[in-house]
């Protein structure tokens, strides 16, 4: 069971953080460079539900497996890592279930109505989403670092 939990934790954390890094640094920006803006928006809009779904699966797997690995024997670095994983999951859920869907609805309504106020609201929510995504990435990199340096299981 120990090796299963350790593997589940390490794979989930690294796939989650690596996926965030790739889509944030390569995937989305490249779409907007090679496709017209509206087509790139449609592409990223169709990818985001899958992106967040993977985040939910990998995030919860990392959190649960880490908890069972450390349960009863947790160090200060283990508590810190557990806190990072909890915050990452929370931010990812807020972003994926509330911010991004609301932003998508605002963008679609703007394209239907042409109401510039809707587009401005979309841009503000998009900025919030980017900040949350960046925070999850930064916390994830910290969790990878803590795992590599301090946690030996």
Task: Describe the structure concisely.
The chain is an all-alpha fold.
Task: Describe the model.
- There is one protein chain.
- With 153 residues, the protein is mainly alpha-helical.
- It has one domain.
- Helix content is 92%, strand content 0%.
- Helix 1 (2-34) runs antiparallel to helix 4.
- It is elongated.
- The protein starts with a helix and ends with a helix.
Average pLDDT, all residues: 95
Beta-strand percent range: under 5%
The tally of helices reads: 4
In terms of structural class, how would the helical and strand content be classed?
Answer: mainly alpha
Oligomer: single chain
Helix content: over 70%
Identify the overall geometry. elongated
Largest sheet properties = none
Distance between the termini: 13 Å
Poorly predicted tracts of residues? none
Rg over CA atoms, rounded to whole Å, is: 18 Å
Number of domains: 1
SSE run: HHHH
* Strand count: 0
Write the layout of secondary structure elements.
Layout: H1 2-34, H2 37-70, H3 76-113, H4 116-150
Key attributes of the depicted protein:
mainly alpha; 153 residues
